[in-house]
Design brief:
single chain; alpha+beta; Alpha-Beta Plaits; 4-stranded antiparallel β-sheet; two-stranded antiparallel ribbon; about 20% strand; elongated; N-reg_PII-like_a/b; Nitrogen regulatory protein P-II; ATP binding; enzyme regulator activity
Length: about 200
Amino acid sequence: MLLTRTSTAVAGRPTRSSAFQTPRAASARCHQARLVRRSAVVVRASSDNGSTKRATYAELESIQCDLSAFPGVKFFRVEAVFRPWRLPFVIETLSKNGIRGLTNTPVKGVGVQGGSRERYAGTEFGPSNLVDKEKVDIVVSRAQVDTVVRLVAASAYTGEIGDGKIFVHPVAEVVRIRTAETGLEAEKMEGGMEDMLSRKD
């Protein structure tokens, strides 16, 4: 970041030496001070961002999760952390594909992005700041894990550092409180992905 000092104290406030200047000269100095102030907040984050590798949408849509460590587990929790402004896209994409049950939590965190700067909602975040993110938790059956991960990854993707991470956790059991159902019956959502797939068949 380039910082430039100027002898003008505050734009619009004349110093002792500028008290006898013409209005045009005073205006020019104020304009120059404003330009200097603006140049102090320029952020150059080109080569400082580390790796520039970006996935293609084809790669995102072919993600496969290795669940072999948990052969007997029927349910998994997909935990996705991503940029706040991608939340509407993620929820809309999941909803269109029959994923009805999810939990959303605003969170703060730092990862690879902690070594670089980002602007969001008018605020600049640096190495020592925790960045605002959104977290979505979705519990799905084993057969739906890859599909859900692909949908979240493609809809949260921008290709820049700070896009987020997806974690997949094993879930021992699912219980629906209202009906006391357990297992697949408790996890199933009416009008969800299973119903949408069965209608196509």
